[in-house]
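Quick question, first post here. What does this chain look like in 3D?
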Amino acid sequence: MEMYIERFADQGLSCGEGPIYDPATTSLFWTDAGGAAIYRKPLAGGDVTVALEGFHAAGLALAAGGGLIFGGASGFFHWSGGAPPTLLCNEVDGIRCTHINDIIADSRGRVLGGQEAFREDGPYNPGFLFGIDPDGQHAILEEGLHLSNGMGFCPAGHTFYLVDSIQRVLYAYDYRLETGRLANRRELIRFGDDDGLPDGMTVDAQGFIWVAHWFGGRVSRFDDRGKRVQTIRLPAAQISSVAFGGADYETLFVTSAAQYWESSLAPQRHDFSTHRGGEVYRIAVGVQGKPEHQAKLGGQAVRERHG
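> Answer (accepted):
Ran it through. Tokens below.
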């Protein structure tokens, strides 16, 4: 399917991540996970501005009371825009919440966030998926994850999707909204070598799943049975994440990464001399997305533990 692909922002981001649309300000927020900054740009025009710098952020969620929830190298934080970020959680059941990658809020305002545990230069222990309730309670929801990445909920909220990039798998779980717990993990999509690594993802209003392909130079749309139904190719190889936005949520925003990573995980015939990325793209896909849920974590006490 041919469609117009526009550069929404062109900053040469080391690792663009976490795009999320804020309807209150009609702006897109995103991060540079390799550059310790969060950016903002109005959809109607204007310049890119630095919303927050000096804090590592890889995944974003809107906070219901204003501002953003973000996950990064040091844990989960709330940033209201008028003061330094507040630490919400950096330890769950004795496990340090370091190297948080993508995060997402559910319809009750909980936040789920997973770890990037993978290290290419040596052995490592697999990571965890954490959940934080609006009352500040924490839980470990999943373990054994190598690089927890994109997450999403089906429109009804009873199915949760999670990407493990290193395993090249998108998992589906039954999601128990009353408790925020997961059950019945199954492998919904197994990606091939030519797909590159599955990265960020989102779910549209019809329940179709959109996945970014790092090393794959494209975004793919899948039905809820895991069948690929559409592919959008982009002029960058390292596509990192996707999000719907705009007044009608029919615009897909896509982040990419300029960093050089000559990994053995790349497809066998991957050309590392091609343009890697660093831009944020805007695509009118003609498919309606849905707003992401807002997190209700900004009001609880800081839960920081040491030792």
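Confidence is low (pLDDT under 50) at residues 300-307.
The CA atoms of residues 37 and 230 lie 32 Å apart.
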